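Support request, please re-run this one:
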Amino acid sequence: MKRVRVRGFLIAINLEYGTRFLTAEAVTLNFRKFCLTNILIVTKLITVMAANSQFAVAIHVLTVLAKGGDERVKSDYIAGSVNTNPVVIRRLLSNLQEANLVVSHVGAAGGTTLTKQPKDIRLSEVYKALPCGEVFALHPKEPNQDCPIGKNMAAFLCGLQKEIDKSIEEKLRQYTLRDVIEHIEEA
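Re-run finished. Output below.
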């Protein structure tokens, strides 16, 4: 599975097509063609949630699970609280499970629980577990390398992006899921 950003959306795709593999660039190009011609060779769209909303939804989901205690909470119930489709919640839970923040069980007695106490889940862990993408995207075409501004712009912006990511992670590390719950209970 590969995650690609197209038109501000993060799309997880299966890059295997027949017996050959596609590059992320080919998938992006073909996705853009799809927008114009309805021909798409990507075999499976997994997430079409605006990248910047995944973190907010994940915090919401984890708070619902924390309030559920040791009881297994069904994705339908969580989806009702978030006001979205249960499939969206299950896909998000998959990312959180890969990061060992939750454990999900299938079947009639299935549902999801936290793997740690809320005081032990840092918001930075949640952020890292998700394919949130960058705060801003670089220009889709390479700037003119003969231009003194164009040839240096991407390097500057990439450095800035790394500084922003580091700042976000440092700030989120200061908060736990317990802090979120306490704030909600005070309101």
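Residues 150-173 form the longest helix (24 residues). Residues 2-46 form one domain.
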